[in-house]
Amino acid sequence: MENGRTVPEYARQPLSAARLRDRDWARATAVALVSGLSGALFYAHTAGHIAGQPPWLVAGLVYAVLIGLTAAVIFRFVPRFGPFLYHTTATRIALASVAALVPDVAHRMTTSPFLNATLIVGGAFLLQALLRARRADTLVGALAYAPAPYRTAQAHARP
Q1: How far apart are CA 87 and CA 83, in angstroms?
Q2: Is residue 51 part of a domain?
Q3: Which end of the chain is less crowded, N or C, counting CB atoms within 10 A of the terminal residue's CB?
Q4: 112: which DSSP letter?
Q5: Taking the model in full, what pTM does it have?
């Protein structure tokens, strides 16, 4: 029992290399699936065929493969950028939803990669700032649930 809550036995054990690798692949798969959906939504109003397939299907597969591989590399070798990758994924699916509802927005975003990238990265920075501001407001209450070693270190710290 930690902090008044029961913690399962598997949660107390350090993660093995295999479990870390599995967790990284699960995260990368989730990001790839959401990115594939956003790619399909971006090109949902595009007419024609690419190699006999509709453009939304090809775009969704390309987004899923490329962004999924990038996510796997980031989660494995640079895990510190993982939260920002989540923010860009959330922004991308939000913009893709708007693009699916408004065909003119979809046309502008698919014909201007610079605009698309700027909106996605800018939205991710905005989302990150909003989450940090919210975290700063609730930090005092969150310290009550901090792990015992952190609380002990803070209690013995010199003022």
Answers
A1: 6
A2: yes
A3: C
A4: -
A5: 0.70
Q: Which of 95, 90, 112, 88 is nearest to 44 (CA)?
A: 95
User: How do residues 18-59 score in pLDDT, each as one tens digit?
Assistant: 777 777 888 889 999 999 999 999 888 888 888 899 999 999
Domain count, the chain: 1
Angle at 154 between CA 150 and CA 157, to 5 degrees: 135
Structural domain boundaries, residue 51: 9-155
Find the DSSP H helices in the chain.
9-12, 17-42, 55-77, 82-101, 103-111, 113-137, 139-143, 148-155
Task: Check if the beta carbon of residue 120 is closer than 8 Å to that of residue 88.
Answer: yes
Per-residue pLDDT tens over the stretch 85-138: 999 999 999 999 999 999 898 888 888 999 999 999 999 999 988 888 776 666
